[in-house]
Amino acid sequence: MHASKTALRSVWKGPFFTPMPAAPADGSGVMTMSRASTILPSHVGRKFMVHNGKEYLPVLVTEQMVNRKLGEFAMTRKVYVFKADKKK
Amino acid sequence: MFFLGVNLPDNKVVSIALTSIFGVGRTTGSRICNQLLIHPQCRLKDLPEDKVTQLSTLLNGMTIETELRKQIADNISKMVQIGCYRGLRHKAGLPVHGQRTRTNGQTAKKLNKSRLSIGE
């Protein structure tokens, strides 16, 4: 809704993406730091290791993820969890 | 007057009365009135019969009320399901568009989780 409208980019430019190398033979994902890269229809079923600023997180691409960015699926922030109370 | 299960206030100007429908704001309300040639000062109780039928057929073709609520919930649950950032923020009940959370963000806390499913 809202974000898809604000994130509009000129049509003549096409989607932004970095060309990804072929998947490595051992089944591990392609290491990438290109979080802003658009997920293309040809990426469906592939695995990427997306950098979150600290480490590479695995992202398995499904059909619904097409047209979104790789970075949307690799969280950059750690969720703060309160420490459990020792005595009850 | 009842339209699609919504009670519209009879004493108000038509374009304003229409805004009690979820999915119709001031702009859409006045646009509908212009389209159906309803006078901008006309109250809903003074609306002639033929205009009322025209109005209801027009409203039937629009995505409003339950249909719209369902559409919104669907869009959000899709984002939650694929696990993208916006989906997780909705799920956590936190602001989605990058607002601060140290203070404020109370609207999101109040609304975001309830938007995951249909209903108020």
From TrEMBL, chain A:
Single annotated GO MF: structural constituent of ribosome
| Family annotation (InterPro entries) | Ribosomal_uS19 (IPR002222), Ribosomal_uS19_SF (IPR023575)
One GO cellular component term of this record is: mitochondrial small ribosomal subunit
- Kindly name one Pfam family recorded for this protein: Ribosomal_S19
Q: Which UniProt keywords apply?
A: Ribonucleoprotein, Ribosomal protein
Name its GO BP terms in alphabetical order: ribosomal small subunit assembly; translation
Recorded hits in PANTHER family, A to Z, give: RIBOSOMAL PROTEIN S19P FAMILY MEMBER, SMALL RIBOSOMAL SUBUNIT PROTEIN US19M
Which family does this protein fall into? Answer: Belongs to the universal ribosomal protein uS19 family.
- Look up and give the organism this protein is from: Physocladia obscura
Q: What is this protein called?
A: Mitochondrial ribosomal small subunit component
TrEMBL record, chain B:
Q: What UniProt keywords apply to this chain's record, in alphabetical order?
A: Ribonucleoprotein, Ribosomal protein
The source's domain of life comes to Eukaryota
- Which Pfam families has this protein been placed in? Ribosomal_S13 (PF00416)
**Stretch list, region Disordered:** 96-120
- List GO molecular-function terms, semicolon-separated: RNA binding; structural constituent of ribosome
User: Which one GO biological process term can you cite for this protein?
Assistant: translation
GO cellular component terms? Answer: mitochondrion; small ribosomal subunit
Q: Does the keyword Ribonucleoprotein apply?
A: yes
| Family of this protein | Belongs to the universal ribosomal protein uS13 family.
Q: What is this protein called?
A: Ribosomal protein S13
Tell me which species this is from. Answer: Physocladia obscura
